């Protein structure tokens, strides 16, 4: 983005794309006038899809970090939320930096925080819509191995490109990656995306790889799919971060541990669901 301007509206303080200064000059009034369609509605955050004359945008309002947990966990999360810098502003800055490096992601419009005399602060993040299908939806719709493998290869190259440009995604799963018509990858949900750490870069990169592979649709969690992804990722990373045989072995072990853990969680959810259904009978 060519320029970013400071933003103030009532108690909101943050940064904004200059083109949106006038339309969003009174943020509270704008939010009342543009409720949009709720995409996510939780106690900790809401996400709305809003159609405007300037295109479709998403409005994310974060009320607190933690959705649920023990009293101590909620208190600790609340204190962390109170004193930490604005997550919305950090997301604006990281996505702006990604776009500058040629990495596809939602174009940020506004990020601001409002602190209250009583209660927790609130963050708002507004960005443009990425009108492309997610990799998860494409993989679910893939009706043959050739279509599946093409998506997997694009994902590997896209994630490698993200890493090569110096970024680590905070939640690198198929539902948060989109495929553009030119076959490039766009990265959504960048709340926890961050610059590549100065130390242990290879470890950070491969953690993202494990994160992605472990969340592939269950029918695609196969050794040949994993091997295809890893080989394409290794090739695309060769110049910036060569991946050796020992690295591949570590990835395979970590992936199997992650898959086992996720399988245990699914089994536990099924047991709880079965008990709940039996108790209603």
Brief sketch in words of this structure:
With 281 residues, this protein is of the alpha+beta class.
Structural description of this entry:
The longest helix has 36 residues, at 245-280. This protein is globular. Helix 5 runs parallel beside helix 7 and helix 6 (201-214) runs parallel beside helix 8 (245-280). It contains eight helices and eleven strands. The model has no long low-confidence stretch (mean pLDDT 91). A hairpin with a 5-residue loop joins strand 9 and strand 10 (185-187). With 281 residues, it is an alpha+beta fold. The protein has two domains: 5-128; 135-268, Transferase(Phosphotransferase), domain 1 (Orthogonal Bundle). It has a seven-stranded antiparallel β-sheet, covered by helices on one side. Strands 8-11 form a two-stranded antiparallel sheet.
Number of helices: 8
Give, in spatial order, the strands making up the sheet with the most strands. 1-2-6-7-5-4-3
CATH top level of the largest domain? Mainly Alpha
Largest sheet: 7 strands, antiparallel
How many domains? The number is 2
**What shape does the CA trace take?**
globular
- CATH H-level name of the largest domain... which superfamily? Transferase(Phosphotransferase) domain 1
Name its key features:
281 residues, alpha+beta, Transferase(Phosphotransferase), domain 1, 2 domains, seven-stranded antiparallel beta sheet, two-stranded antiparallel sheet, 8 helices, 20% strand
Q: What's the layout of helices and strands?
A:
Elements: E1 5-9, E2 12-16, H1 27-33, E3 37-41, E4 45-52, E5 55-62, H2 71-83, H3 87-100, E6 108-114, E7 122-128, H4 135-141, H5 145-164, E8 167-168, E9 177-179, E10 185-187, E11 194-195, H6 201-214, H7 223-237, H8 245-280
Antiparallel strand pairs: 1-2, 2-6, 3-4, 4-5, 5-7, 6-7, 8-11, 9-10
Helix pairs in contact: 5-7, 6-8
